[in-house]
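Worked Example 4.2. Consider the chain below.
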Amino acid sequence: MNYADKSIIIDGFTDLIKYYAGKSPAEDMSSDLMLFLLELISAGRAISRRYVAVAVRNEYIRLSKAEAARRSAEVPYNEEMRGQEYNTENIIDIKTTLSVLPEKQRKALILHRVSGLTFEELAKKHGTTRQAQYRLVKRAAKNARRLLSEIKT
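Applying the procedure from the previous section yields the following structure tokens:
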């Protein structure tokens, strides 16, 4: 595919990318979607207009979910929090609890609860099933609660 063909494809999807970027609170959604489109073109996967449109939509959905997970993991700051200190005793208890958990459980729990990865993403990352990752995170959370209650008493 020559440069002119690539340019025509990019021009044809600029409005769609602007539309999705306008729907998203993420600042770099437009550039991420444009980069995705360029990767599609360079990989030779821009086989039809419909295929590219659906691929861009699916990438928008994936990026939106990742952004939502990232935003939900952030602790909101407001003026009422100014001057407050974190309860370091609780932080130490949580770190101690996590360090006692088996490595597999600790990693799965942190990736799911803190980083916001879905069970499907965890399964893909570790080469297992979604259900296996669900059970692993559930077991890790149960063990963490038990260990925290033992530390507190």
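The mean pLDDT is 82. Helices lie at 3-23, 29-42, 49-73, 88-100, 103-114, 119-126, 130-152. Compare this with Example 4.1 before moving on.
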